Amino acid sequence: MKTEVLAMILAGGKGSRLGKLTQNIAKPAVPFGGRYRIIDFTLSNCINSNISNVGVVTQYEPLILNSHLGNGDSWGLDGLNSDLTVLQPFSANDGSKWFEGTAHAIFQNMDYIDRMDPEYVLVLSGDHIYTMDYEKMLEAHKQNNASLTVSVIEVPIKEASRFGIMNTDKNNRVIEFEEKPEEPKNNLASMGIYIFNWAYLREFLLTTHQKDGEMLDFGKHIIPSYINSGERVYAYNFNGYWKDVGTVESLWEANMEFISPENELNIRDRNWRITTKHRVSPPQFLSDSASVNESLIASGCYVSGDVTHSIISTDTQIGEGAKIENSVIMPGARVGKNALISRAIVGENAVVGDNAVIVGEEEVAVVGNAEVIGVCNDED
């Protein structure tokens, strides 16, 4: 059965700038917001945009990510007319095994895409925090009779050199693409979200791969080639909340913004639900010595300390006398008695011992996944 739109989520990123938080886990599987993982936002956007066939391309440390994705049932992607397929690197006829870039990952999975037979391929990143209606982008793609549409967002001009920048004409047609320019001409940054006409992209990838095998990345290679060959490439302006959580600072900032009920993500919007694979956990418990202010406390938590403007994730324990402020405590972590944690991220299943002090000053402090800082009393 022909598919109009197939979403391909690129979720193999190592996320090395997140340091300890991605030593044994793919960046899209990093916990976020108390009960979610980063990839949940892209997957939920697909479902809310009525896109029901999704391929997830994995590579680096995929074990936790694969377990989280399962068969897609948490997002309703396990029905008769819906599907979630995990696509891992494999040994191809040319001997290649690893995906060497974003375009190469699509090329390597051409057989899967052909089996789905889509008219359009929606290429997404699995490591951004945002809500977006892809149907509106597809509508603009069709109206422009585009061969490629790139979603863009305005960023502060002083930060534009960190991004791929789209220079457009008055009709939003892209006339030039600059990859991380030292002196950007504008502030329209690529979000790494693309809609391609599959028939043309397929032929383009096959031809260029047979010719030189160098078309490995969409930003560096494919988009400039499309523009130079006269293809109709358009920018789609996105005006909502979007966060690239590629650094510890940006991940911490996004979590802190997430606490506010006025956050642009509007997580409580019943018409645009963010769905995840839920842990089976008991209700949260706040002891008579607990004090919680302006914080998110997930299910399964036991809190006996003071928590201020922080996120306490699923199945976390906070000991008596502990003080948590402006911090993210990820799932399964334990914080001992009288510990002080401020402007920090404590990784999944980490242990912070009694009386430990973890304070971020110029930089956000980080405790790695399953890292042990001091010793907790087993009777806590």
UniProtKB/TrEMBL annotation:
Alpha-D-glucose 1-phosphate binds at G164, E179, K180, S190. It catalyses: alpha-D-glucose 1-phosphate + ATP + H(+) = ADP-alpha-D-glucose + diphosphate. PROSITE patterns: ADP_GLC_PYROPHOSPH_1, ADP_GLC_PYROPHOSPH_2. It is an enzyme of class 2 (transferase). Keywords: ATP-binding, Carbohydrate metabolism, Glycogen biosynthesis, Glycogen metabolism, Nucleotide-binding, Nucleotidyltransferase, Transferase. Residues 7-257 form the Nucleotidyl transferase domain. It holds the Pfam family Hexapep_GlmU. The record marks Q59, W98 as: Could play a key role in the communication between the regulatory and the substrate sites. Pathway: Glycan biosynthesis; glycogen biosynthesis. Residues 289-361 form the Glucose-1-phosphate adenylyltransferase/Bifunctional protein GlmU-like C-terminal hexapeptide domain. One of its GO terms (molecular function) is ATP binding. One of its GO terms (biological process) is glycogen biosynthetic process. Coiled coil: none annotated. Involved in the biosynthesis of ADP-glucose, a building block required for the elongation reactions to produce glycogen. Catalyzes the reaction between ATP and alpha-D-glucose 1-phosphate (G1P) to produce pyrophosphate and ADP-Glc. Belongs to the bacterial/plant glucose-1-phosphate adenylyltransferase family. Homotetramer. This is Glucose-1-phosphate adenylyltransferase. It comes from Vagococcus carniphilus. The gene is glgC.
